[in-house]
Design brief:
200 residues, mainly alpha, elongated
């Protein structure tokens, strides 16, 4: 209903932050739209000027998280380095982004199943786009090192990078008691690239 793009952006950011806090505490199903409005800092009437249902808020949460992860990752990528060095820095940058947004990532994966079928398909496409972005970095880095891998291996390594970054969030109750982010990242890079590249 609202036409002002800047106001829409501002309200969506407020909704996403408020919803993430509530979904983390109570879960999607136990959170009401009235609570989301209050946590976002405006009335229930204002909330419905921007969304049609609670599922719309969840969709906005998922969509904005993917966009922010992508934006932060692109911003942190080191374009001055090459080959395996660039790949390692890219993996470390991705792990850092997930660390910085771990509450949002956790909520997204826990609650995305509650999205309507069409919205869930869209969110899963965004997940694939993220994997493809990692795959592109991997592919370019290996090419610069004149390392050749099968398509199956490249795709699997890309998925593994994504999953190991998310594990820092999903199993933080255990993992983060054992390692700091830097140590965890270094160990995971060693495991992820084992068999791909062995320095002399």
């Amino acid at each position: 209903m609202v036409k002002d793009p800047q106001l829409i952006k501002k309200r969506r950011e407020q909704m996403v932050k408020g919803a993430v806090r509530l979904f983390k505490q109570k879960g999607f199903h136990k959170t009401t739209t009235r609570e989301i409005a209050k946590e976002s800092g405006f009335s229930i009437g204002t909330l419905y000027e921007y969304i049609g249902s609670k599922e719309d808020v969840l969709f906005l949460v998922c969509d904005s998280i993917y966009d922010e992860v992508r934006e932060r990752l692109v911003h942190q990528l080191d374009t001055s380095s090459r080959g395996i060095t660039r790949l390692k820095k890219a993996i470390a940058a991705f792990f850092q982004v997930i660390h910085d947004m771990q509450d949002e990532v956790l909520v997204m994966y826990q609650e995305a199943k509650s999205l309507p079928k069409e919205a869930l398909s869209y969110v899963l496409r965004k997940e694939m786009e993220m994997t493809e972005m990692i795959e592109m970095i991997l592919r370019d880095s290996l090419k610069e090192e004149a390392i050749s891998l099968t398509e199956e291996k490249i795709k699997l390594i890309s998925h593994n990078i994504l999953v190991q970054a998310h594990m820092w969030t999903f199993r933080r109750w255990s993992i983060q008691k054992l390692y700091g982010l830097k140590e965890y990242t270094e160990l995971q890079i060693e495991q992820l690239l084992h068999g791909v590249y062995r320095p002399n």
